[in-house]
Design goal:
The complex is a heterotrimer.
Chain A (H helix, E strand, L loop, with lengths): L1 E3 L5 E6 L5 H10 L4 E9 L3 E9 L2 E9 L3 E2 L2 H4 L4 H11 L2 E2 L43 E5 L11 E7 L2 E8 L7 H5 L4 H9 L6 H16 L5 H29 L3 H22 L8 E2 L2 E2 L5 H23 L2 H7 L7 H7 L3 H5 L12 H4 L3 E3 L6 H24 L20 E9 L2 E9 L5 E7 L1 H5 L3 H5 L8 H8 L3 H5 L1
Parallel strand pairs in A: 2-5, 6-7
Antiparallel strand pairs in A: 1-13, 3-4, 4-5, 8-9, 9-10, 11-12, 14-15, 15-16
Helix pairs in contact in A: 5-6, 6-7, 7-8, 7-14, 7-17, 8-9, 9-14, 14-17
Chain B lengths: L2 H20 L3 E7 L5 H7 L13 E3 L8 E5 L7 H10 L5 E5 L26 E3 L6 H11 L20
Parallel strand pairs in B: 1-2, 1-3, 3-4, 4-5
Chain C lengths: L1 H10 L21 E3 L6 H10 L5 E4 L2 E5 L8 H5 L4 E3 L14 E5 L6
Antiparallel strand pairs in C: 1-4, 2-3, 3-5
Chain lengths: 494, 166, 112
Amino acid sequence: MTTQAAAIRGTVTTRVPAADLEKVTADLAKAPGTRLADMFASDGGITVLRLVWARESGYLVTETEIEGGQYPALSDIAPAAFVEECEIYEQFGIRPATGKPLNRLMLPPHAGPDFPRLGHAPAQPPQEVHAPHTVGGQAFEFPFGPVRQVGVESLYYGLVTSGEEVVDVYLFTWHKHRGVEWRLRGTTPRQAMFFAERAEGLSAVAVGWAFAAAAEAALGVAPPPAADRTRAVALELERLYNHAAAMAALCQATGLTVGQSAAEIALERLLRVNAAAFGHRYLFGVIEPGGTARAPDVAVLRRELPAAYGELRRAADALLRTNSFVDRLEACGILTAEHARRLGLVGPVARATGLTVDARRDGPYAAHPVTVVTADGGDVFARFQVMLGEAAESVRLIGEFLDAGTAAERTALPAKGNGEPGSGSGLGWAESSRGEVLAWVALDENGRITRARLRPGSVRNWRGFDDACRSQNVFTDIPIIEASFWLTAAGLAR
Amino acid sequence: MNPSLDEAEAARRLRDTIAAQFGRSLHIRTLDTGSCAVCEQEIRLLSAPHYDLHRLGFFFTPAPRHADLLLVTGPMVRAFEVAARKTYEAMPGPKVVVATGACALGGVYPKDPFVHGDVGQVLPVDVWIPGCPPSPLALLHGLGVAVGRLAEKTPGLTFIADGGQG
Amino acid sequence: MPLWFIRGLRRGVVTTRYPARPDDSAARLPTPPAFRPGQLTREVADRLVAVCPGPALSRRDDTLVFDVGACTGCGRCAEAAPDAVASSGEFELATTSRSVLIKEIPIRGDEP
């Protein structure tokens, strides 16, 4: 099932007094076509709470000054905000007024009052998550990780199981928290770009684009259309290799080694296309604030991408005809559209439940509309189908972008160098392979960052993981479900 | 006896022992101390058809108890240090630690309250593999160096162009 | 399963012969820079140090100190001074000694 996504027009920022915040949030949460995309705070003397809402017409950012350390319990209205409430409490010490417990999520257990934060330490430390916390009767809880199977990121799961059935799964990434947002303060957008790309390296183009766009919005500059098209080519190449990697991971999780090898052949060929076209297998260093640092080698891309995609397509077709593989995916890890909407999920995870949420609606995509691929059922198989459909769409889009103009020129911000002029704040976005990435940047009068918010797609979607794993799934399904989400611990931990 | 000659001889014998024991069959445990996830993707590709580390006698093992070599990525986030030490201590000797990628070598994150900044602050590193990320070919070269099968090139490289090597 | 078996046979071997033989794909990998001392004035060197996002470049008197281990191959130094910086083409950089990765590049001084 596919739909055309409408073009959107821009970002609106509005101040909301604290007394009105609850009502405004309730109205927005109920409004049709409106989704809570992010919530974060910043502290420049007074703590300001910002909510980012995605609407048909564009993004809306509400800004509220918080005094007295408390604000209304927004996650009671918008459950999509709970994880953010916990993070904001850890980093800024402000909390919802209800007094309900907030969990320690981002910072490590030893993070005392003097540990570096984006704001102030909370008056009471947040609660440690314990399990079993939802179940009665016989359940066995065991911690798994953070050092897990070979070749995967460190990730700590608390797994609660009654025999084979998954009762609960919760996860932590504080052991990978590098403090990226903290480290970006005081840097110029150009310096920060290096770290923004590496916040979630498998989404380097998407996070880099969202960050660059946020800096550009703050400075009131726009990259030339040719640079935007180059960015889009890189973004679609990134989507392609990630979907190939997810396919390989699905085969590994289901024990289908030949499928895994076939997918890995396709993945390796796609990474070599990236290296040939942009000089880096993972497309680092393509985007810079104001434009792009590199132009693609168009001839090489046209020559080599079709064959690499052909490998992926043939492997996928063979997998779809392998019943033992498809059987493991169907009815596994089901998320409903209601789950996805309530939790504010994004990307293929959301689209596989039927939601048409896709951030590729403006910029270069306005002239080259994306056919948004959705599926029904919300299971692992639906997510796999969405990824395959998106891969085909990415190849088509790359062809369109390459045909649309000459190779992109390199550009730079009008005043290049440390300390671009102009202060301001702005929101940027891009659709990574994992879903919508948001970035928000505030610059001071010297052009240096006072606050940078990076919100990769993984931050949104990991909170749907426990719902997907629960109930009818056995815990050997967990790697399959994890592969179908294809998120990262680095993107959540930052 | 000249103590430094003794040490040099002991080091040579240890290296020869390692090469003899690991040169044809090596089991590798990976360790992510806070990477951006890209180094892990390159490491996973070592067992993919294009690179196939098995043909060289290298194998991955999830159990530190069975591992000979610890392949470490990431800037050693301080909150991960306990897990890193436990993994290293669970490996029986002789064992080799390979720090891979610019993060692990101190090139990306400076030492600060969040990260140590390089793996060598916590673990005794034997081999360093530069790159961001190191490609599977670079990783194969690094593993070959670690078991004494491949020669190092860097000592002879000057990184001076116009007449110099490299 | 016969489907996969036949596909595999028809696909053939893609495995590299590296390290026994060189691999062509290495030619497209990003590599650390190599520097041209003839183009390296103190001013150029200071510009390179400023633009490097990490600690890979620093200056000590008339020496540009280049830590290959810290280099990410980002290319910003080459972009800042294309006459002074070339690509080394080297990807086999692993070493058993960290200090061997610290290279010293002479700076020519400010006379032309």
